[in-house]
Amino acid sequence: MVRIKDVAEKANVSTATVSHVINNTGKISKETQKKVQKVIKELNYQPNRIAKSLKLKKTNTIGVIVEDITVFNAPEIIDGINKYADEHGWSIIMTNMRLNQLYGNKSERDEMCVIHAPKAAQELVNKQVDGILYIGVHARDMSGIMPKIKIPIVYTYCYTSEENGCYVNYNDEQTAYNATKYLIESGHKKIAIISGLINSYPSRKRFDGYYKALSDYNLVFNPEYVKTGDWEYESGYTQGKLLLQSKEPPTAILGMNDLMAAGAMKGCRELGLAIPDDLSVMGIDDREMSFFLNPSLTTMKIPLTQMGRLSMVILDKLVKGEKVEKPDLLGCKLVVRESVGPPPSN
Amino acid sequence: MVRIKDVAEKANVSTATVSHVINNTGKISKETQKKVQKVIKELNYQPNRIAKSLKLKKTNTIGVIVEDITVFNAPEIIDGINKYADEHGWSIIMTNMRLNQLYGNKSERDEMCVIHAPKAAQELVNKQVDGILYIGVHARDMSGIMPKIKIPIVYTYCYTSEENGCYVNYNDEQTAYNATKYLIESGHKKIAIISGLINSYPSRKRFDGYYKALSDYNLVFNPEYVKTGDWEYESGYTQGKLLLQSKEPPTAILGMNDLMAAGAMKGCRELGLAIPDDLSVMGIDDREMSFFLNPSLTTMKIPLTQMGRLSMVILDKLVKGEKVEKPDLLGCKLVVRESVGPPPSN
DNA sequence: TTGTATGCGTTATCAA
DNA sequence: TTGATAACGCATACAA
């Protein structure tokens, strides 16, 4: 390893001078600058970032804690983070807690998170990161889980009700509202919804949006048209079938996510119904698979990249000690594909 | 920030003693140990990893360079890396070069990689990582791109022909061979293949496997049954349709990846053919979407997690100065779903 | 068994 | 415009 000292000796100057020409601090004569730069090239000197960080008490690094990188939302959020980080000179240390891999998509996962997350945060603090970005696997309250640390934390794809807590999320209610609205404007009056786990925040909010849309458009709310799944494909299949086998089946089904919508489509197929001729189906998420379903799934796209980027924008400010106000919830965009049409005319 | 010195003062011992009880080095009396540990708890002392790294010239950190984290192979490979890293006390710094996001899925991407990759590697070296893991977006030769650095690099989902270069990959030829074999054993004799870009290594190897399987099973090789796509959905659609509209259409199509196989399925649907009754289709990759196609796609699963893990196993040894021999190419597992059946009987 | 003192590679203060 | 030197927080050789 070639140190600043080696450069200084070879260039016949002091380490202070070398440091100055590297960082453009202090007044150094053109000649000395040239001389030093030449030696730097010759020796291929590269500053040791560890030593620099120790001295500066600043790493220019953001720690990203992701609950599970194999979950569909993670890569794009991280991409958004990286985009901003690249543009603004931030480095990223990533901690993938592997929660889904370790505990599956079960309640145990959230319980264990309480153990893993503080550890991960503390480790990052020990590495002197300047701030922490936390990416959840599903939207829930993270309040009180993290240890008291002196660097800012921004949450995304989850939220916090802590006093100065900061999070970036999308608008569940608005999204479900707009989805339902699209179905209504396509002519549907009998619109069913397959909910995610009933005790989850997004399920409640999305239901609110669904309900409000019905209400705004003067459609009767039929409790028979609300079924509860667990966000998974299988539950969409089961609940979808139930819906379609009822006395007065709906003409449209809104899955609270793409997976359950896909399950409902399978159920529909099994009953010999055609989509969208006999039944319209819609999802939320716009995962990759929704494009490949047959027919392709009309859905609401979660602005993942934007969420990652906005999280970094806010964290950047927080790290610099600037005051930030809580950001608005982001909107989801309607992605029109083939699975929604007018209701059957009979 | 509470330093080792603060602990030492409060416990009325020297910093050396504190350091010793923390790291279990040297002989310290039980009492002193207890006393020090008590103070550590009280002060909630956490060692500064930056200072430690500077002193030890070792960061216990692996730098992971991923060409693009939004590409389907990345998350699982990273998961495999994290799994091993967690179990063996390695930290991970991730550099996502965002190649696909910046340049798209075009040749420009590979050209620009030559600019980005050495920079990323040098940055990681400056951060004193102990080794580097490189994850490609598609399998190609990375020889000569990286700068000469003194820490080991292991490549995965790409390869290198450099003298001491080390990479972890799966066996393209064997995979295509087994896929073709499965089609043959399902009764097919007229098996077409849709190739990826013709100048790519995986395309050549997969073709070799296809050819060898035909040959081993005494089937005639018909050049009409070889079409060239570009790995994308659209090309599978176009080439698949071409294949099906020929005078003597194949009874089975092997897409060199799931995307092209999915495209071929779409073409097939448009021509009013049923899968698998009229045509069998098979892919390679086992991306998430292959499960959601209708019918679901029979395909070959790339062992991504295992690739990530094995890369870390090897890098770990390399970092420790152990000699490693080049690992065997990993096998892909057949995933039987609905898209393959016996050929039509007519 | 414990303490003193040095150095890891930087930056920055202050003196020259 | 430059240089000598003291930190940053830690681990460790060596002394006690």
Shape of chain A: elongated
The count of DSSP E runs of length 2 or more, i.e. the number of strands of chain A, is 11
Number of helices of chain A: 13
Using a beta-carbon cutoff below 8 angstroms, give the protein chain pair with the largest interface and the number of residues from each chain: A-B, 43 and 44 residues
How far is the first residue's CA from the last residue's CA of chain A?
80 Å
> How do the SSEs of chain A run, as a string of H and E?
HHHHEHEHHEEEHEHEHEHEHEHE
Beta percentage of chain A is: 5-15%
Which bin fits the share of residues in helices of chain A?
Answer: 40-55%
Largest sheet of chain A: 5 strands, parallel
Biggest sheet, spatial arrangement of strands of chain A:
2-1-3-4-5
Would you identify the regions of chain A where 5 or more consecutive residues have pLDDT less than 50? none
Structural class label of chain A: alpha/beta
**From the alpha-carbon coordinates, what is the Rg of chain A to the nearest angstrom?**
26 Å
Mean pLDDT of chain A equals 96
Assembly type of the shown chains? homodimer
Walk me through what this model shows.
- The structure is a homodimer of 346-residue chains.
- Chain A has 346 residues and is of the alpha/beta class.
- Chain A has 13 helices and 11 strands.
- In chain A, strands 2-1-3-4-5 form a 5-stranded parallel beta sheet, sandwiched between helices. In chain A, strands 7-6-8-9 form a 4-stranded parallel beta sheet, sandwiched between helices. In chain A, strands 10-11 form a two-stranded antiparallel sheet.
- In chain A, helix 8 runs parallel beside helix 9.
- Chain A is elongated, with a radius of gyration of 26 Å.
- The first copy, chain A, starts with a helix and ends in an 11-residue tail after the last strand.
- Chains A and B meet through helix 4, helix 5, strand 2, helix 7 and helix 12 of A and helix 4, helix 5, strand 2, helix 7 and helix 12 of B.
